[in-house]
Amino acid sequence: MNDANDILKDMNDRSREVFRAVVENYMDRGEPVGSRTLTRSLSEKVSAATIRNVMQDLEHLGLLDSPHISAGRVPTQLGLRMFVDGFLEVEDLKAQDRLKIDATLGGNSADVGGMLDRVGSALSGVTQGASLVLTPKHEAEIRHIEFVSLAPDRALVVLVFSDGQVENRVFTPPAGQTPSSMREAANFLNALIEGKTLSQLRGTIQTEISSRRQEIDLLAQDMIESGLALWQDEGEDSARLIVRGRANLLESGEQDEGLDRIRSLFDDLERKRDIAEFLQLTEDGDGVRIFIGSENKLFSLSGSSLVVSPYMNSDRKIIGAVGVIGPTRLNYGRIVPIVDYTAQLVGKLISDRS
């Protein structure tokens, strides 16, 4: 395949202008762009026939494609990559977008997970795409654990960390649990947690339950195991992925085939395939990166684009990422500064709370 940078160097001014006009019209309208449309937007007055010849040349270079006979052109993945690398003009962050993102980060809540969930919703709303937020693995020592009964078939486990962060999750408790068994389970755990992180606590719990099986009520054992299984399922090196705005991406599909591909993408995300790759995507630098279609295997089937940026802790270590998924005709110039600002803000907030 031709290298986009080499092609760009070989293009003359007219080819560049026609190419840029095709891509910008496509991103704005989402439809194939015809030569007559371009005659009204080019700086140089040329005939539709001349523009068609230029578009044919661009098609031979692999930058444009004709989805239907006599239907105008759309940019290819190579064309979009060349546009992003060589023509994209990044806008300034709009004041209203900044305010919407800032509003999600207000307050002094220690629940970082809840804050990141709100960030994902705000990103989705501001960009009208689907948002991704990869949360950091929490390795602070645990200060206190509590089980709270909500209903016969629902209970809440609350973890308070030494850095002040609070995490809580609803789970299904073992049948026949009683208030006393829940207290016993919490007391057992709180006697073990001093100075331990969650991953360190898991091994200790298994050892203690095995050696003190006769001393611990069976119902309390079940409560301990079922309550902590919520974190165990994620694996020691995994991080939580928050996906918001699925409906936005589904609504942007124009054909049933496109909807099926997008549903497949979300099925993959929900099964947490290749989630660690989101951090690997950003290892080469601390700025925003754009992945178009098959440039990332998670998005190759759906034909979507990903605009993603890492965020860092106070030690400048990458601990998570925020991003936006959308169709390839995303308004990259507007979304890049939104993602960049959000990532920097989240990193600063997490660093301050640490």
Automatic annotation (TrEMBL):
Residue intervals of the Winged helix-turn-helix transcription repressor HrcA DNA-binding domain: 14-76
Swiss-Prot/TrEMBL keywords: Repressor, Stress response, Transcription, Transcription regulation
GO terms for biological process, alphabetical: negative regulation of DNA-templated transcription
Domain of life: Bacteria
Chain's role: Negative regulator of class I heat shock genes (grpE-dnaK-dnaJ and groELS operons). Prevents heat-shock induction of these operons.
PANTHER family: HEAT-INDUCIBLE TRANSCRIPTION REPRESSOR HRCA
Protein name from the UniProt record: Heat-inducible transcription repressor HrcA
Designated gene of the protein: hrcA
